[in-house]
Specification:
Blueprint (H helix, E strand, L loop, with lengths): L1 E8 L11 H19 L3 E9 L2 E10 L2 H10 L1 H4 L5 E7 L3 E3 L6 E3 L1
Length: about 110
């Protein structure tokens, strides 16, 4: 298995503060999609990042290879909705995981 960082890039820097009703609906489906992947153990962490230059989405995933990471990105409802969202995908050659609150970290 391999780890990847997926960065969801919105169609404009002002998103989500000016999201249209169509974008809000697609974001609800996006949330459900990633929540399901987290429950399956594929997504390690997922969430919005409010950075100085504009918000973006972040997902850390564990999959077999980069093609599988691309499949996750391409299958995201926010991408399939055709609203201008896209993912940048970067491999992570190693990762340190928290085993539990108060527990020791594990390297993978």
């Amino acid at each position: 298995m391999a780890y990847f960082h997926l960065k969801l890039i919105a169609p404009r820097p002002s998103f989500p503060h000016d999201a249209s009703p169509e974008e809000k609906t697609a974001m609800q489906a996006h949330f459900g999609y990633w929540q399901g992947l987290a429950l399956q153990g594929v997504a390690i962490a997922v969430g919005p990042v409010f950075a100085e230059g504009g918000a973006f989405g972040l997902a850390l995933v564990e999959v077999s290879d980069e093609a599988a990471a691309r499949d996750l990105a391409d299958g995201d409802p926010i991408v399939t909705a055709g609203l201008g969202f896209k993912f940048d995908i970067s491999p992570m050659p190693s990762i340190i995981l928290r085993t539990s609150a108060g527990g020791a970290a594990a390297a993978a």
